[in-house]
Amino acid sequence: MENNKASNTPQRLPEWMKVRMPGGPNYIQLRNLLKDSQLHTVCEEARCPNIGECWEARSATFMILGDVCTRRCHYCAVTTGKPIGIDINEPERLAQTVARLGLNYCVITSVNRDDLVDGGALVFAACIRKIRELLPHCKVEVLIPDFGGSWKALGKVMDAKPDVLNHNIESVRRVFPGVRPLGGYDLSLELLEQAKRLDPDVPTKSGIIVGMGEDIDEVTETMKDLRGVDCDLLTIGQYLRPSPKHLPVSRYYTPTDFEKLAETGRSLGFRHVASGPLVRSSYHADRQHEAASRHPALS
């Protein structure tokens, strides 16, 4: 495993981390459509390296509840600050856009909205239901925040019957407080466990970002913790520093490292593991859902 000492000096990206600049016809059409719809995508806000590939394939992850987050995680490029209200028409507008695109699979995420009593759970639920009304065949995955540990809020989302419930743990137990100071490692595990209790038939999913100061054994322990709460699906990807103000990259994992992590995850019983340098939470999310449908839970 390639070990690069973290520093404030910009590191040269390895060859396997480089991607083409986006600009295909589908990418341009989707960008214009989303702009006209006044919708945000995590693809843009978080500067996802897969934006060209995914948008060219007419796949996007929609970010609801605005583009200002109430938390300041040290790895994330999303703007932080004090959000202003909510848009009550957003679920309808999102559903109409999904229908116009004719999507078969849709991923919905959000910023943290600690200013709202339910963290925005009701809006998540409304988006799921509106999409189902306009496009019944479309599968809906939600990538949710921790709702401050409100299981009542989580229940609102689960009652809307998402096809996949995703919540990212992001990092290992030791590193977690330094990268997500307003979150909680055990809180994230408990949320995934509660989701299973509320609806055992909905696959749960989580993601780990590597290269933020952890070691390989700690990543394995986090995978075990996730399996301990019956998490079904897992993504593992390389951390990329959004700006000099953010956490430095501690190391770049090689493609071989990622394959070994995938093998470990499969041996632990995950129904699907997507592990690679450019893998992100919603990368090929439809394929993960299909894998979960094909392979029954092992626990």
Descriptive report:
The chain has 11 helices and 8 strands. The protein is an alpha/beta fold and 299 residues long. The chain has a single domain, classed as TIM Barrel, CATH 3.20.20.70. The chain has an 8-stranded mixed β-sheet with strand order 1-2-3-4-5-6-7-8, with helices on both faces. α9 packs parallel to α10. The protein starts with 24 loop residues before the first helix and ends in a 5-residue tail after the last helix. The N terminus is likely disordered.
What's the CATH class label? Answer: Alpha Beta
| Strand residue percentage | 5-15%
Largest sheet: 8 strands, mixed
Say what the CATH topology is.
TIM Barrel
Mean of all residue-level pLDDT scores? 86
Distance between the termini: 32 Å
CATH architecture verdict: Alpha-Beta Barrel
- What is the global morphology? globular
Characteristics of this structure?
299 residues, 8 strands, TIM Barrel, alpha/beta, 11 helices
Structure in a nutshell:
By secondary structure, the protein is an alpha/beta fold. The chain contains eleven helices and eight strands.
